[in-house]
Amino acid sequence: MAEEGERPGVFANCLLAFVQSSSVSSNTISELSQIVRQHGAEVLEPNRKGQIRIPQVTHIISNTIDFDQYMEAENMMIPVVTTSWIKNSIARNKLAQVRPYSPDPRMIFSSVVLTCADIPELDKEAIAGATLAFGGTESKDLMRTTTHICALTMDHPKCVEAAKKFPKCKIVLPHWFDTCFKLGKRIDETPYLLPDPEFLSKGSDEEVKVPQSQNLEGATSAVPGELIEKRPALSGGRQKVIVFAQKKVMLSADLNLNARLRNSITGIIEDSGGEVVNVADACDMFICHYRDGPQYVRAAQSGKDVGNLAWLYYLIVHNEWTSPLRRLLHYPIPREPIEGFKDMRITLSNYGGDARIYLENLITAAGATYTKTMTANNTHLITARMHSDKCDAAKEWNIEVVNHLWIEESYAKCRVQSLSSERYQHFPSRTNLGEVIGQTFHDEKVLRQLYYPGGEEKPEAFARKKRKSTADGQSAGRSVMNESSPAVGRNAKARGTQATAGNFATPAKGRHVRSGKENDTPSVMSTGSRSAKTQALSKLQSIAPDIALYEKEKKRNPKDGPWGGKRAADLIDKERSVMSSSPTPDEKEDDVQRSVSKRGAKRQRLSLPDVEMRVVLTGYQRWLEDLHKEDADRKKLRAMGVQIVQDSQPCDYLAAPNLVRTKKFLRCLARGPEVISSAFIDACLDTGKRHDPADFPLEDKTNEKKFDVKLSKSIARARANRGRLLQAVPIYCTSDIKNGYDAYQTVAEANGAIFKVYRARSGTTIKPTTAEEDGGAPPEPVYLLSTNTAAEKALWPKFEKMAKDGHMEPRIVMPDWLLDVAMKQELVFDPKYLASNKPS
What we know:
By secondary structure, the chain is an alpha/beta fold. It comes from Immersiella caudata.
């Protein structure tokens, strides 16, 4: 707060929330949070569920729209802006407009700062107006922040000055803007750059390089291929999947998964902290192949995230949430052809690689027939340029010629779009339109109208806000308007509303996925062979290391090692661990019971109730030195639907007698479970019945003060972080650190860190680099956990040199830094943690 007579900060009255992603790390969020607080802002803590407090927040800071509350924020008219908005607001000492800083890729000029040079006045107004409409900004003068100059020649003073002082500023012909406006997509500026634009010097019939498709990875088909093995590695192994944390996922029967693959996918989801459910009303994510059937309709109507198996695999590989509506083939396909496509025969030209495969599958998904070769029987040619043998033949045979935007937007809007639209007939002379493929989104309103009319709008869309703002974008207040949910449009065809249970035995249609030259003979699958879908899925089973490991662990025999988890040795810091991932006898009984019930056996030896609570216990003394009592009590609890699990397994609750900084507690806290008092376990065992865990919250004001932490805030942050608090943060640890490095490794990796042991003979492990090679970005911190013994201190100079050579900032810290960060679930740093500040 500004003192009396002092000018308020630039972010005064702003309530900000940050979204962590691959482009905005926890470290960046920590630094920016400090900065905005110094300028008057308040950074809102997440709510109990780990979500952004949408009703209160004024701005959401995110460099991507790929977070699950984006649609809610958009419906509530809350601006989502990139981190550049903060920097530019501070530089200008007033809130910058929000529109130019939108992370929405549909705002194609959101990063463009334009000034015009020798352009006629009317053209200048048209170009500036359209640039603003697509999220850009315009200035009359050339500034340091200017990104583009629109000019006809290099003679104008603005162009001369930019060439001398601002080499990164691009001087482009107005034709570039015109083409982008017509297409509604931003194409590469290179052919239009002055002083020697290729657009003017080369003919449209000269060869143009086929571009790489940037938006099609994992989205070329509704049927996924071999994706999971591409997941990035972390600390010598595969990166922990956290994208399903706190999510309930339903796998529809129409996916036609075999039992082994279903179990493997279930294991990945559960290991990520999620849960697989069998009721559409109970799920957060519904995975199906076709956009029909009562479960699909129910899930879609109630605002669940509905996607197909390709979307699910995409989430696993990228380990980051994205909307299934963002990529056309991540959403379930229609079982019947989209109206108007049934009798179309479509071929392609001038598209290669993933773009060709994607368009082949999109044509088939729409219900048309794709042909590899073109004959007079073809109805349409989709081409990226107007120069090829197929294009010439199409003119002679009066075949319709369009670019790929026509099929994309027809599929997205669930109806054939007019061929006469200029955007579908536009072919820039020096551009292959494959560079802008895959950027079209689904229209959720159209999907609702045709496939699941009625029901609820998305829950977050109930309350919409109108925001009043000043000219510079500062929020001054908002009102709430409730809307009813009209049943829009015509009734769905028999697709969804008349589907029966019989539909779910129906196998998914095989979608061909091919590549190669245009005139190769298409391959034909025999009717006796497996479908393309089954082939693709079977490959996954044989190659995915995660699946193999999961299957191996699931089959482990209890005789191979001790069971029962870790047993407490004291209340605070010491735990004796029996490290085994073997399932407990109770878990094996559950597996037997489930498999027996699935086979429909008449005789069933076991009658245990379903597991309703999975609990990790730490610091618990009731069973200390009494293994027989522990065995008996575990069976009693299991009979109540309560299962005690190891800290490496998914859990719903973390139970402890008080707030402790044990490895178990910190590892589980990263998943954001409910934290309860272990008195709950005592009460269940003493009374012989299961109590309500809500009656046993863990309350420990003494240790909250001791550790400078608020448990409720830590839980909320953990649910927001979803195990990503230290994602991509490199943490080294000396090999001889007190109490061993194993415990610190467990805590660090539970929060997504890259953990390495640092030894005197380990050599350089950070690649030497320079600021220029890192794009001019400031050095990121790298941590070394160390105490200040003579042996460990001898390693410090070598570590510091290694970090600085790699353009990183070395921070040699006491282990308490990691423990405090994990307990608070907030990446903070204070010089008090530096090992050099501690007495020897």
